[in-house]
Amino acid sequence: MYGPTNLQQFHTTLVAVPICLLSSAVVFDFFGLITGIAALGAVAHWAVAVGLAGAIVAALVGWMEWVSIPPRSHSKGMAFAHALVNTLVVILYTGSLLSRSADPLQPQIMAIIFSIMAAVAALVGGWVGGEMIEAHGKTNAETVISLDLSISDETTAGGLY
């Protein structure tokens, strides 16, 4: 299997894009503040904008997975908590994006504060999501790409083992 085959795996794969983009915005802001390079503010602005679009797509797939979880199960509650925290993340990054709208080259301090708070909340949301995956008995690497590195019977019959 090379790639996602069910909603859980698809959602797990999709979240990588917004996680990378949104967390990189914090890094670009940090280096923009230190170096004074205005272009880093613009890069952070677009990283937040595109990251939010990716987060919405990942959230829609996550919602489709959530409705398929049996009611009153432990996973349903964890998924709800995961969704709640990540909704807060989207709201905070949206606040960051709106705070940047006046001048993307020179983000206001509130834009950076929103991004930092969102990044911390994303760590919590990601941890809850990871706990759900572990509760199902598979990790992200195991569900997304499965490699068979075992020695086949033909090889062992040939005297190599």
Q: Report the major sheet.
A: none
What string gives the helices and strands in order? Answer: HHHHHHH
Stretches where pLDDT falls below 50 for ≥5 residues?
A: 137-161
User: What is the first-to-last residue Cα distance?
Assistant: 27 Å
Q: Please state the CA-atom Rg, rounded to the nearest Å.
A: 20 Å
Report the portion of residues in β strands: under 5%
Mean pLDDT: 81
The global form is: elongated
Q: How many domains make up the coordinates?
A: 1
Structural class: mainly alpha
Descriptive report:
There is one protein chain. This protein has 161 residues and is an all-alpha fold. It has one domain. Helices cover 76% and strands 0% of the residues. The chain contains seven helices and no strands. The chain has helices at 7-14, 16-35, 38-68, 74-100, 109-135, 140-144, 153-157. Helix 1 (7-14) packs antiparallel against helix 3, helix 2 packs antiparallel against helix 5 and helix 4 runs antiparallel to helix 5. The radius of gyration is 20 Å and the shape is elongated. The model is unreliable at 137-161 (pLDDT under 50).
What characteristics describe this protein?
mainly alpha; 7 helices; disordered C terminus; 161 residues; single chain
